[in-house]
Amino acid sequence: MEIRQLRYFVCAVEQGSMGKAARKLGVVTSALSQQISRLESELSTRLLQRTATGIIPTDAGIAFFRQAQLALRNIDEAARSAKQARLSGHVSVGLAPTTAAVFGLPLILAMRERYPDVRLHLVESLSGHLGAMLNARQLDLAVLFNDDAGRKWSVLPLLEECLYVIAARGFKGFPRRKTVRLASLAGLPLAMPTHMHGLRSVLASAVRRQAVRLDVAMEIDSLAMLMDAVAAGLVATIQPGAAVTRMAAHDLVMAQISDPGLVRRNLLVSLSDDELSPAGLAARVVMRDVALALAGGGQWVGAHSLHDS
Fold first, then answer.
1. Alpha carbon 167 to its chain's center
2. Per-residue pLDDT for the chain (309 aa), expressed as one digit of tens each?
């Protein structure tokens, strides 16, 4: 027995005519008659009696009509309750410092708007630490920069970020062009995060391929301190455009690194779908929507959807 058959039968009784009921339901009369005939066959009883002026319910039809009306009201009420119910629960999300700078607040605002009863726990840490926390089930989701196939993660390719060399205006030796190759930065003193950071791994692979030697004068694992050193004119750095999100008051210059393939891939990584709570599943959709909106609207400097590559 299908809900559709109940709706067809109730409408037919209320209209007193198969033709009128079919028009109201937006179906052809033959389809309506066929569904009611199947219902009668399943119940092994005649529900409607055809007359010269239309249809009338049999005694069995009258009894069934009352219960069918009640069942449909309960079904409609259940559907309304489901639509009106507000998702609740807890979800923990990990972001690297550069990602948090551009993505953190918009994510908070979007989650508050869509799911105000979901408690959001945000963790800002190096990507290597975030991966370890995900494996330890201390996080539900994270934006990471590489995927370890040996881990049982759900991985959604999200964004690709261009890399830039960044320094204070007037920094000695800073390239004058808007785009540069990695090899031309060999003599520039840089501040970079340690190898626990996904960006450093990306650069390490690039310099090995090109036999380039970069001058890493400082290793700083705090984005805020690293960018303070850059703004003070002590060093330059190589970062995605998101690193300058909180540096609007500083006079910085940027040049995009144009080496083919030298980009940072952002992956939306989570526990498996079987392990994610409804709140986690909802947050994953919101995270994707917010990231793509930021990139598409130009607020995430140098980022574009991997689907646009």
1. 33
2. 788 888 988 999 998 888 898 888 888 888 888 988 998 899 898 988 888 888 898 999 899 888 988 888 888 888 776 766 678 889 999 999 999 999 999 999 999 999 998 999 999 998 888 988 988 889 999 999 876 644 678 899 999 999 999 999 999 999 989 999 999 998 899 999 887 777 888 888 888 888 888 999 999 988 999 999 999 999 999 999 999 988 876 899 999 999 988 899 999 999 888 888 889 999 999 999 999 999 999 999 999 887 654
Domains of the chain with bracketed CATH: 3-84 (1.10.10.10), 89-159+266-308 (3.40.190.10), 161-263 (3.40.190.290)
The model scores a pTM over 0.85: no
